[in-house]
TrEMBL record:
Family (UniProt): Belongs to the acetyltransferase Eis family.
Gene3D superfamilies registered for this protein in UniProt: 3.40.630.30, SCP2 sterol-binding domain (3.30.1050.10)
Protein name: GNAT family N-acetyltransferase
Segments crossing the lipid bilayer: none
Amino acid sequence: MSLDVRTITEDDLPNWIRARRTGYVQSPTPSKTEVAFRRELMDLARAQGAFDAGRCVATYRSFTQRLSVPGGASVTANAVSNVSVSATHRRRGLLSRMIDRDLREAAERGDAAATLIAAEYPIYGRFGFGPATRVTEWEVDVFRTGVDPRHAGPGDGGRVDYVDVAELREHGPALYERVRAVRHGLVDRTDVWWRRNTGALPMDDAPWTEPSAVVHRSAEGTVDGLLVFTADDRWEAKLPHQTATVLDLVAVSPAAERALWLFLLSVDWITSVRTGYRAPDDLLPDLLPDPRAARVVTDADLLWLRPLDVPALLEARTYPVAGPLVLDVTDPAGPGGASGPAAGRFLLDAGPDGAGCARTARPADLTLPAAALGSLFLGGESAVRLAALGRVAEERPGAAGRADALLRTGRRPWCADVF
């Protein structure tokens, strides 16, 4: 019997969730709570499933996302999530059918890019996605830091206050949007995200445990940072050995960020801190008198980006220097091997105040696949490095270095959320 790949209906949702759980090697049967959560979370018109004799065997969905780019603006992205194919139905082109349709519809809508978090690295490059941000997680030995808890309070005239989840929902969304305006790579957080992460919208039947949360207030009383964390309860020989795990730490200013880290490292009984996913160039290690107290436990790619509308994407950000660059983008990732939406030769005329980008017949400076442009766009990857790897071709000597001067950013891009 042929496999039916189609948009799902509300009646399909429990079957679709079961297939997703099966593909993720989880207990298959969803609870009524999870079905209700997914229904509120999902736009069914952008959810697809593959069905074999009425049984869902592959899942896929997308949603509209806003991605912050260098310079403080945001672009509209087609965010891909919940991709699964049951082990019984692999190598039948199910993902290709679903993602080809979704990316075609995204390009028709005018989305500048598509994004995803890749559970498995080898899959998505062939669809034009490239890793665009990386994350690092540290484990901090509090006793080795050299931080004196007696002097770890804010030194900028501000203060740190505990807040409950209601206050977190009140202050968090506006603060996070302010942070997105100064930190590229972050994706927007919807009302559903805030309710899910503050206990107002349960995802499953597991009891929700309220985390600890604090905000940093500036000397003027404005909330300019927040920290959410949990701590275990472990004692040995009547001595505390508690690990604090950071769930969220965002701040508008380096002063607020420093105050929140030093606050957490001064909390009684906490002997170790797991930082959660931070940017590779996070300030934390070098905020410590002894940076070696922060040990790297994770270093990996996170957000992947696929260009759809190259001019719209490149015009959305700013550039540290001025200059033209001609990019010949190859994109064979369309349906049936046809050219995808990012294919073409583009003249980027860029500068600190913005950029123009349009198709051109001028000779190319660089030739690169759409996936490589996805890796370069946010400024975290080097064209010189990709050229050395054979993933970018210099058509003019020194073009990769010129691309780096235009595209690289002073801080690494950072995506804080898995979606």
